[in-house]
Design goal:
- The protein is mainly α and 116 residues long.
- It has helices at residues 19-29, 31-64, 70-74, 85-93.
- It has 4 helices and no strands.
- It is elongated.
- It starts with 18 loop residues before the first helix and ends in a 23-residue tail after the last helix.
C-alpha cells in the first residue's frame, strides 16, 4: 500500500535551503558581486568580441572604395555637359505637359502584373 503523504519534505519559499532564497540572501549582502560584476563583464567582453567584427566591416568598405589613378582623374569630367539653369528652365517650359498618355512599365519575368 502506497503512503498517503509524499516522502519529500515540503519546502516553503523562504526556506534557507532553497537555491533562490540563498541567491536572494547573498544578493542582499553583495549586490555588485552577483549582479554588477557579471553585467560589466558582459559589456566589456562584448566590446572586445565586437571589435574584430566592426574592423571586418570597415575593411570590406575600404576594398570597395579605391583610390583613383591620375589617368582616371583626368577623364572623369569630360563626358558631362554644361548645365545652365536658364536654358534648362526654358527647355522644360517649352514641353507640352498637358498632352500626355499613361504607359505601363514592362514587368520582369515572374513578377505579378498588379492587376486584381
Amino acid at each position: 500500500m502506497a503512503p498517503v503523504f509524499p516522502s519529500r519534505k515540503y519546502r516553503i519559499p523562504g526556506d534557507p535551503g532553497n537555491v533562490g532564497a540563498r541567491y536572494r540572501a547573498m544578493m542582499a549582502k553583495r549586490p555588485f558581486l552577483l549582479f554588477g560584476l557579471p553585467f560589466l563583464t558582459v559589456i566589456v567582453g562584448g566590446s572586445f568580441a565586437l571589435t574584430p567584427a566592426t574592423a571586418i566591416r570597415y575593411e570590406r568598405q575600404d576594398r570597395k572604395v579605391r583610390q583613383m589613378t591620375r589617368d582616371e582623374e583626368l577623364g572623369v569630367g569630360k563626358t558631362k555637359r554644361k548645365v545652365d539653369m536658364k536654358d534648362e528652365y526654358y527647355r522644360l517650359a517649352a514641353k507640352d505637359i498637358d498632352n500626355w498618355e499613361q504607359r505601363r512599365v514592362k514587368r520582369l519575368a515572374g513578377e505579378s502584373n498588379g492587376v486584381v
